[in-house]
Amino acid sequence: MSHLPECQTLLLELHGGVLHVTLNRPDSRNAMSLQMVNELRAVFAAVADERDIRALVLSGAGGHFCAGGDIKDMASARAQGGEAYRELNRAFGALLEEAQNTPQVLITVIQGAVLGGGFGLACVSDVAIADHQAQFGLPETSLGVIPAQIAPFVLQRIGLTETRRLALTAARFDGDQARQLGLVHFVERDAQALAERLDEVLQQVLRCAPQANGMTKKLLLASAVQPSSELLDQAAQWFSEAAVGEEGVEGTLAFVQKRKPRWAT
After folding, report:
1. How far is CA 29 from CA 24, 43, 91, in A?
2. Are 177 and 265 within 8 A, CB to CB?
3. What are the TM regions of this chain, as residue ranges (predicted)?
4. Which residue among 36, 112, 142, 173 is the one 20 to 30 A from 5 at the CA level?
């Protein structure tokens, strides 16, 4: 474990060639703070050349996967202005790119809230296992901002038609619907079934040669249309403009005050 970074927002456990990474901010339903983004990026960088680590299992503490971006970081960025919003947003896009391209098999085990950034992480996993009661959604537009870094990865995962519906309605849906959309591969009814399915998937992964898996993943991603860095740069700029604009200010204020924003009738 000496090569792995010290983390405050993540729990790291290495067992038999599998690194279990647990998002560990349960008090905020594992909301994605900038610190958590940076720590996850450090983990992906640390394991990139570690062939002894065959798979990464990403889950959340306290019964939730990830409830999206951290409102405190958003408030801090507001105090600093639009450029801080752009940098905060773009850092998360970089995390999604790095998670997408990690040579290990990335498995997500999903319970509870899977919103915004958490939704994006589910979309870049190689295998996604969800509880049937998990709650998925892209709430950004209901907060007056846009799913800037997430949308290209969602589109790649489930296609333009369904992504348009989900992003433009901020609709919530459960694990069974996520399976129908092709967002997740397996849906289980309880914690024991989730654990058993994970064991089964890991046994399958460990039968595959690590270098062959890494190269196959690289080939498959290159064969698909990938979200480009240029698009994510532009999207971060649009996000910062939305966040400091009238709707973004009203949307996040309404969220904190637990009321409907002005446009929601």
Report:
1. 9, 21, 20
2. no
3. none
4. 112
Cα–Cα nearest to 174, from 162, 192, 187: 187
Q: What digits encode the pLDDT tens for the residues 104-151?
A: 999 999 999 999 999 999 999 999 999 999 999 999 999 999 999 999
The pTM for the full model equals 0.90
Residue 81: which of 248, 235, 261, 234 has the closest Cα?
248
**Which CATH fold topology does 1-190+209-265 show?**
2-enoyl-CoA Hydratase; Chain A, domain 1 (3.90.226)
